[in-house]
């Protein structure tokens, strides 16, 4: 297994640790960050999320730079992103930091794109993420990181940057989903033959 695929696998392995930090009743204290308090367990979970999200950029960079792009990587990388983002968004609902309807739309888009990828894989076609998908992922990662940090550092000025970024991520999620289906609709047509 090459380095980019190992980084992707490490991202997947960080997800259970991230979930446990946000799910267990860990009372490690809080930090006053202005308009809110940031539990230390949430801060550590946010750091793990940011590191995991960073591996997405690093593995893609190395895969392209050293020509290490593999079909396994094309499959595992978006899957790792979807697992990480879905886990984070669901936990943000539980924490009262994200509206459920936004999360439902984002996760529904991810399922739809994954379904299209599975149909393509059945036809022997591997569909890589496009530029719109990468922008969607970047905005989602920023929104989630800021929300996990309880809007730090913007909580000091009481500016809802995290939720604004979540709505921007929602916009790019919907637009990139439509773009992905339009560009790859031929896969669905081919599968009906």
From TrEMBL:
What keywords sit in the KW lines? Answer: Cell membrane, Lipid biosynthesis, Lipid metabolism, Membrane, Phospholipid biosynthesis, Phospholipid metabolism, Transferase, Transmembrane, Transmembrane helix
The protein's name: CDP-diacylglycerol--glycerol-3-phosphate 3-phosphatidyltransferase
GO MF, one example:
CDP-diacylglycerol-glycerol-3-phosphate 3-phosphatidyltransferase activity
**A GO cellular component annotation in the UniProt record:** plasma membrane
Give the way it sits in the membrane.
Multi-pass membrane protein
Major place of localization? membrane
According to its UniProt record, which reaction does this protein catalyse? a CDP-1,2-diacyl-sn-glycerol + sn-glycerol 3-phosphate = a 1,2-diacyl-sn-glycero-3-phospho-(1'-sn-glycero-3'-phosphate) + CMP + H(+)
Give yes or no: UniProt keyword Transferase: yes
Show the taxonomic lineage. Answer: Bacteria, Bacillati, Bacillota, Bacilli, Bacillales
Q: What gene is this protein translated from?
A: pgsA
Q: What's this protein's function?
A: This protein catalyzes the committed step to the synthesis of the acidic phospholipids.
GO terms of biological process kind: phosphatidylglycerol biosynthetic process
Task: Return the EC number.
Answer: 2.7.8.5
Asked if the Swiss-Prot or TrEMBL record annotates the protein with the keyword Lipid metabolism, the reply is yes
> Which class of enzymes does this protein belong to?
transferase
Pathway in which this enzyme or protein is active: Phospholipid metabolism; phosphatidylglycerol biosynthesis; phosphatidylglycerol from CDP-diacylglycerol: step 1/2; Lipid metabolism
Q: Where in the cell is it found?
A: Cell membrane
Q: Which family does it belong to?
A: Belongs to the CDP-alcohol phosphatidyltransferase class-I family.
**Where would you find the membrane-spanning parts of this chain?**
12-28, 40-62, 83-105, 163-182
Pfam families from the xrefs?
A: CDP-OH_P_transf
InterPro entries given in the database record? CDP-alcohol_PTase-I, CDP-OH_P_trans, CDP-OH_PTrfase_TM_dom, CDP_ALCOHOL_P_TRANSF_CS, Phosphatidylglycerol_P_synth
């Amino acid at each position: 297994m090459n380095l980019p695929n190992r980084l992707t696998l490490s991202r997947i392995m960080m997800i259970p640790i991230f979930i446990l930090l946000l799910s267990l009743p860990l009372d490690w204290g809080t930090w006053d960050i202005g308009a809110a308090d940031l539990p230390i367990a949430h801060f550590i979970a946010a750091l793990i999320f940011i590191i995991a999200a960073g591996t997405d950029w690093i593995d893609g960079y190395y895969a392209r730079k050293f020509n290490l792009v593999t079909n396994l990587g094309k499959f595992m990388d978006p899957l790792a992103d979807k697992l990480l983002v879905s886990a984070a968004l669901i936990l943000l609902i539980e924490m009262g930091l994200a509206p459920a309807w936004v999360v439902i739309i984002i996760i529904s888009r991810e399922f739809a794109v994954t379904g299209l990828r599975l149909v393509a894989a059945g036809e022997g076609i591997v569909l890589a993420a496009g530029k719109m998908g990468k922008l969607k992922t970047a905005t989602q990662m920023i929104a989630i990181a800021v929300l996990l940090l309880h809007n730090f550092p913007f909580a000091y000025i009481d500016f809802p940057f995290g939720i604004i970024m979540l709505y921007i991520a929602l916009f790019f999620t919907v637009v990139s989903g439509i773009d992905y289906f339009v560009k790859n609709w031929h896969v669905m047509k081919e599968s009906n033959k």
